[in-house]
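Quick one, probably user error.
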């Protein structure tokens, strides 16, 4: 695991080495970007699973009213509803 502590402490002697600091910032941004992309993929996949449960629980029109619609308990479901238009059913 890389240690980027010196980037956040101006008084650290390593912070004053501009080439090292610049390289470390670039590396830190790349690692952070990969982590953010991974996390967003996980959120999207979870949303897709929850959305499928909701759609499947609604049944088909004319199927009768004997079904119970699934209500997601996931806190982020409503916040991620903007993804609903981009998902193929």
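Nope, works fine. Designed sequence:
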């Amino acid at each position: 695991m890389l240690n980027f502590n010196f980037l956040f402490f101006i008084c650290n002697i390593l912070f004053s080495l501009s080439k090292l600091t610049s390289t470390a910032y670039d590396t830190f941004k790349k690692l952070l970007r990969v982590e953010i992309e991974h996390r967003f993929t996980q959120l999207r996949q979870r949303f897709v699973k929850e959305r499928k449960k909701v759609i499947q629980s609604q049944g088909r029109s004319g199927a009768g009213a004997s079904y119970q619609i699934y209500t997601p308990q996931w806190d982020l479901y409503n916040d991620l509803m903007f993804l609903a238009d981009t998902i193929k059913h």
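Helices lie at 18-58.
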